[in-house]
């Protein structure tokens, strides 16, 4: 009906399923019996059916019964000195794909996008990408040195850094390898593993331009090398134009100190640019007259093209969107009827202008309302109401950013980039809705 489809191969799909937090069949039966999902979430014929019908069902914690937890005192304050999510949310965690990397130190964990609401990633769920593991940095012992082609080199303690004027900005960080396993076909049946290398936080810190004014850049200074304090001593070069535009030397994330996974006590946030330029555990900024190509040769991310040549610097993350519900981990649980198709869109070029949604594999499109706030180089949430007729469907989202750039299909992207790439795969994602409400990752061919 929809032409040639590519589905994930069985073995890899199985691993994804083992790790995924889909309901077990017993849990699913339980939910159906209790009517938990169907009662609150399904509209039939325009009204919320099931709400009154379920009253009086043998479910002891439901109204009009008085639930167990209302009949006794709860735990007191500071029983959780650092508050943790409800134990019922234990499946909402970062996950890794064991076969993807040889070991866990140079590896990646994926954020559970299927469970997230709004646009802010909670700190404990922010994806992680480490080249040499996560160092435990003592902030008292940590210093940030700024030197090179500058008038007044400095070495700052973390206290010194906090004496500069600060900014707080909401920005996404995406690893350019996000979705990179899928250039040659569908691989994994999971939103988390396919798209979970993007997260979004409110970052607080000092503008790098403020620090540059403090040290005074010499006229020959054109690039800034940033170096991390981890075992990889990861370095990236950033051109002065970007440095003076919107780069932040960040020490806080969503209102608290950076998490160790995110570069505690200080990292670079390079809005809209490849994740790898956002150097964590930042210890050194060196102003130079050219990029440090030679030393970065082995560590720089390049994109191999079809003709064997490579793109060297691909800094900006192009516009991308994905439907986060329904998705393989979030099937349609209540039969046909009204659902919200929800998802996330973002672009390293600025703001998201519009998102279109298709339920027929890209033949027709409907504009999906954007949820406020819509901010530059931030995740943006969209949601479109959909009356599912219970038949198989192919759902897609397509973002248009403020430059007019339209998110490409995989065929369009491959025409420009070939299939040798790993990085920067921002093609339209297709989810297949099956008649039983389950959802599969497919590629339209
Ligand atoms: N010092 C250092 N900085 C680093 C890395 C690293 O391994 N070491 N990984 C980079 C990569 S490849 C990415 S995608 C982002 C990921 O940021 P996150 O772990 O906070 O999600 O950090 C970047 N900064
Ligand atoms: Mo990355």
From TrEMBL:
Residues 131-292 form the Oxidoreductase molybdopterin-binding domain. InterPro entries: Ig_E-set (IPR014756), MoCF_OxRdtse_dimer (IPR005066), Mopterin_OxRdtase_euk (IPR008335), OxRdtase_Mopterin-bd_dom (IPR000572), OxRdtase_Mopterin-bd_sf (IPR036374), Sulfite_DH_SoxC (IPR030835), TAT_signal (IPR006311). One of its GO terms (biological process) is sulfur compound metabolic process. Pfam families: Mo-co_dimer, Oxidored_molyb. Its EC number is 1.8.2.1. The keyword Oxidoreductase applies. Residues 314-430 form the Moybdenum cofactor oxidoreductase dimerisation domain. Keywords: Metal-binding, Molybdenum, Oxidoreductase. It comes from the Bacteria. Its cofactor is Mo-molybdopterin. One of its GO terms (molecular function) is sulfite oxidase activity. NCBIfam families: sulfite_DH_soxC. This is Sulfite dehydrogenase. It comes from Marinobacter antarcticus.
């Amino acid at each position: 009906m929809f032409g040639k489809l590519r589905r994930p191969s069985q073995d890899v799909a199985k691993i994804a399923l083992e790790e995924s937090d889909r309901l077990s069949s017993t849990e699913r039966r339980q939910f159906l019996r209790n009517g938990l999902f169907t009662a609150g979430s399904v509209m039939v014929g325009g009204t919320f059916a099931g709400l009154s019908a379920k009253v009086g069902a043998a479910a002891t914690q439901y109204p009009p019964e008085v639930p167990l937890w209302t009949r006794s005192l709860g735990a007191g304050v500071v029983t959780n000195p650092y508050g943790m999510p409800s134990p019922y949310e234990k499946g909402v965690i970062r996950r890794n794909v064991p076969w993807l990397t040889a070991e866990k130190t140079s590896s990646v964990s994926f954020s559970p996008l299927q469970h997230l609401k709004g646009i802010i990633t909670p700190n404990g769920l922010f994806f992680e990408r480490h080249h040499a593991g996560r160092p435990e940095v003592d902030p008292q012992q940590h210093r940030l040195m700024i030197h090179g082609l500058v008038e007044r080199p400095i070495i700052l303690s973390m206290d010194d850094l906090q004496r500069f004027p600060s900014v707080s900005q909401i920005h996404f960080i995406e690893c350019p390898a996000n979705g990179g396993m899928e250039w040659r076909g569908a691989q994994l049946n999971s939103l988390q593993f396919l798209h979970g290398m993007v997260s979004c936080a409110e970052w607080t810190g000092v503008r790098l331009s403020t620090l540059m004014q403090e040290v005074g850049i010499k006229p020959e200074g054109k690039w800034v090398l940033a170096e991390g304090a981890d075992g990889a001593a990861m370095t990236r070069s950033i051109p002065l134009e970007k440095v003076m535009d919107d780069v932040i030397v960040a020490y806080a994330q969503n209102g608290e100190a950076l998490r160790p996974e995110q570069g505690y006590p200080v990292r670079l946030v390079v809005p809209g640019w490849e994740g790898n330029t956002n150097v964590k555990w930042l210890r050194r900024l060196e102003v130079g007259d050219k990029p440090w190509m030679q030393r970065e040769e082995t560590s720089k991310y390049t994109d191999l093209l079809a003709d064997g040549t490579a793109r060297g610097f691909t800094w900006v993350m192009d516009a991308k969107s994905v439907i986060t519900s329904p998705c393989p981990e979030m099937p349609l649980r209540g039969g046909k009827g009204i659902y919200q198709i929800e998802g996330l869109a973002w672009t390293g070029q600025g703001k998201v202008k519009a998102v279109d949604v298709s339920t027929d594999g890209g033949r027709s499109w409907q504009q999906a309302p954007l949820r406020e706030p819509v901010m530059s180089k931030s995740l943006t949430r969209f949601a479109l109401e959909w009356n599912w007729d219970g038949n198989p469907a192919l759902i897609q989202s397509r973002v248009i950013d403020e430059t007019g750039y339209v998110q490409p299909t995989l065929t369009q992207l491959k025409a420009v980039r070939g299939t040798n790439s790993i990085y920067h795969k921002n093609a339209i994602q297709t989810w297949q809705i099956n008649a039983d409400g389950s959802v599969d990752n497919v590629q339209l061919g």
